[in-house]
């Protein structure tokens, strides 16, 4: 879901935030008086008046062949019980390569 958050000054687009419940989200819609946060998880855990903190980090996720056959959550954390994933990380907002560079 999307949460409307007021009072987050100088937040960056795609910056990770953390709600008081421990739930994480990503700043997406930056407006003059509020920020639209994409919630990574059960948005029913968020209540009006909850504290939301900036992390200062831009959202990134693991990428690469190490993810094949694995089950991960929205942030790339393994949820299949097979241990950690050792992969390089990339920002989620990076523009995809054009068609020609992707042809192998």
Automatic annotation (TrEMBL):
It comes from the Eukaryota. This is Mitochondrial ATP synthase alpha subunit. GO terms for molecular function: ADP binding; ATP binding; proton-transporting ATP synthase activity, rotational mechanism. Signal peptide: none annotated. The keyword Transport applies. InterPro entries: ATP_synth_asu-like_sf (IPR023366), ATP_synth_F1_asu (IPR005294), ATPase_F1/V1/A1_a/bsu_N (IPR004100), ATPase_F1/V1/A1_a/bsu_N_sf (IPR036121), P-loop_NTPase (IPR027417). Keywords: Ion transport, Transport. Pfam families: ATP-synt_ab_N. Residues 1-56 form the ATPase F1/V1/A1 complex alpha/beta subunit N-terminal domain. Belongs to the ATPase alpha/beta chains family. One of its GO terms (cellular component) is proton-transporting ATP synthase complex.
